[in-house]
Amino acid sequence: MSYQYDLFVIGAGSGGVRASRVAAAKGYKVAVAEGSALGGTCVNIGCVPKKLFVYGSEFGHGFEQAAGFGWSTTGASFDWSVLRDNKTKEIERLNGIYSNMLNNAGVNIISGFASFVDEHTVEVNGVQYSAERILIAVGAKPFIPEFAGSEFVVSSNEMFFLDELPKKALVVGGGYIAVEFAGILNGLGVDTTLAYRGDQLLRGFDQDVREFASEEYRKSGIDVRLNTDVKAIELADVTKPDGERIVHFKDGHSETFGLILYATGRVPNVDKLSLEKAGIETGKNGAVKVDNNFTTSASSVFALGDVTDNIQLTPVAIKEAMALIGYWFDGKEIDFDYDNIPTAVFSQPSIGTVGLSEQEAEKRGLDFRVYQTDFRPMKHTLSGSTERALMKLLVNNADDKVIGAHMVGDYSGEIMQGLGVALKAGATKADFDATVGVHPTSAEEFVTFSDAALKPKK
Ligand SMILES: Cc1cc2nc3c(=O)[nH]c(=O)nc-3n(C[C@H](O)[C@H](O)[C@H](O)COP(=O)(O)OP(=O)(O)OC[C@H]3O[C@@H](n4cnc5c(N)ncnc54)[C@H](O)[C@@H]3O)c2cc1C
Ligand SMILES: NC(=O)c1ccc[n+]([C@@H]2O[C@H](COP(=O)([O-])OP(=O)(O)OC[C@H]3O[C@@H](n4cnc5c(N)ncnc54)[C@H](O)[C@@H]3O)[C@@H](O)[C@H]2O)c1
């Protein structure tokens, strides 16, 4: 049976771009369909524009702290449209780079949303394309619960294109996106409330990190409200759909906000795919089910990245794509290692983490010890800020291996990349101790932990 393409990729995001580019470079005839902008979520409405907004927002605190270092910043003001539009220009530049990269690799870029006709055929804009292999890399989309007035909220998608910033905003949720956007808004001068229905933000992170970060967010000016849930939302004035919203909370009180962001998770983006036509099985929230080799229930169809609802991070989608390339071209069975994946939350202060949390180590029944410290970073001895940093190292007693590293504080994402290598390589506490520190940094705390920093056992 002959097909038009060796590989048809659906979705030119983090995973799809990597898979199509490398497969084409290795000699496959490849097409990629993209219904929106090249680069996917991360480049257009995720990691990249978010980080640019974080940089913009950090100046807000920077100006406050500059006086202690001798700077006078009277008259500094912020223009949202400049940040928003410069960000958009930069993203358009990246879109162009992605387009060139794919074209140069010989990938045929098809603009439009694809859907399955059968397990070897997809349709885009009414045209059918056949392929020996099809890769689903369509990512995820925001999930907003249904309730009275849910149409008056925005998701992270809209946050990148707001006409103007509100004076007062409510962010609902307690995960990565909620705390990152609460930090962005707060730094840009918006009166920001972060409401989370549970006991503590950032479920799944180390409990000390969660509590410490939450307190730091409060100190930075965010009104963090735990055990708080929204019942209904209505317009303050029905003739002004873009105007203020009244939020009725479940505890009975009501409050007015100019903008409400729901950051309540993301679900696989499978609606437009007609997966049933190719006999592709899905699980919770429509996640495409795959085996170890990212093969779906249809043997010619593969899936990776956020659409499989595993770990939703760009470097994970990219590494999965590279593993799949190895499987296709070198016949290497995939045994993807999801342990020790470093990750950062770009809140203010930021969080970096790799390996096990204390709670996860306990759940696994490990015998381990914890080194922990919190301190005022050197910068804040002059800045006037009361911000503190937290560092924590978990060590397995049986073999002295470091099994978890956690930090709340400036540069923790940058620091965690190196520690990720150390944990992956199986470094022991003795290896950390034998490493010379970089001075003066916060990071050096990770290689100078002594018994004095041991956390008492519960
Ligand atoms: C606000 C935000 C901030 C984030 N920040 C970070 C971060 O700092 N670090 C990090 O590691 N991760 C971050 N992420 C997560 C990261 O963006 C995702 O994990 C990553 O983009 C997943 O890659 P993917 O290839 O699975 O899908 P995506 O990058 O989402 O790409 C999927 C593509 O498929 C297209 N598509 C969908 N359906 C079809 C169809 N039927 N036909 C054709 N095309 C289709 C979409 O338009 C999209 O371009 C963030 C996410 C968000 C929302
Ligand atoms: N820095 C990064 O690497 C980064 C940044 C942003 C997003 N991401 C990825 O994108 C994923 C999605 O981010 P996210 O923040 O949307 O999801 P999340 O899963 O991290 O957090 C969702 C939050 O919403 C809450 N929630 C769910 N349903 C709710 C409801 N009905 N009412 C109130 N609260 C509700 C959850 O309890 C949770 O706190 C993340 O898990 C992460 O993998 C990564």
From TrEMBL:
<dbReference type="InterPro" id="IPR016156">
    <property type="entry name" value="FAD/NAD-linked_Rdtase_dimer_sf"/>
</dbReference>
<dbReference type="InterPro" id="IPR046952">
    <property type="entry name" value="GSHR/TRXR-like"/>
</dbReference>
<comment type="similarity">
    <text>Belongs to the class-I pyridine nucleotide-disulfide oxidoreductase family.</text>
</comment>
<dbReference type="InterPro" id="IPR012999">
    <property type="entry name" value="Pyr_OxRdtase_I_AS"/>
</dbReference>
<keyword id="KW-0274">FAD</keyword>
<dbReference type="Pfam" id="PF07992">
    <property type="entry name" value="Pyr_redox_2"/>
</dbReference>
<dbReference type="InterPro" id="IPR001100">
    <property type="entry name" value="Pyr_nuc-diS_OxRdtase"/>
</dbReference>
<dbReference type="GO" id="GO:0004362">
    <property type="term" value="F:glutathione-disulfide reductase (NADPH) activity"/>
</dbReference>
<keyword id="KW-0676">Redox-active center</keyword>
<dbReference type="InterPro" id="IPR023753">
    <property type="entry name" value="FAD/NAD-binding_dom"/>
</dbReference>
<feature type="domain" description="FAD/NAD(P)-binding">
    <location>
        <begin position="5"/>
        <end position="321"/>
    </location>
</feature>
<protein>
    <submittedName>
        <fullName>Glutathione-disulfide reductase</fullName>
        <ecNumber>1.8.1.7</ecNumber>
    </submittedName>
</protein>
<keyword id="KW-0560">Oxidoreductase</keyword>
<feature type="domain" description="Pyridine nucleotide-disulphide oxidoreductase dimerisation">
    <location>
        <begin position="341"/>
        <end position="448"/>
    </location>
</feature>
<keyword id="KW-0285">Flavoprotein</keyword>
<dbReference type="InterPro" id="IPR036188">
    <property type="entry name" value="FAD/NAD-bd_sf"/>
</dbReference>
<dbReference type="InterPro" id="IPR004099">
    <property type="entry name" value="Pyr_nucl-diS_OxRdtase_dimer"/>
</dbReference>
<keyword id="KW-1015">Disulfide bond</keyword>
<dbReference type="Pfam" id="PF02852">
    <property type="entry name" value="Pyr_redox_dim"/>
</dbReference>
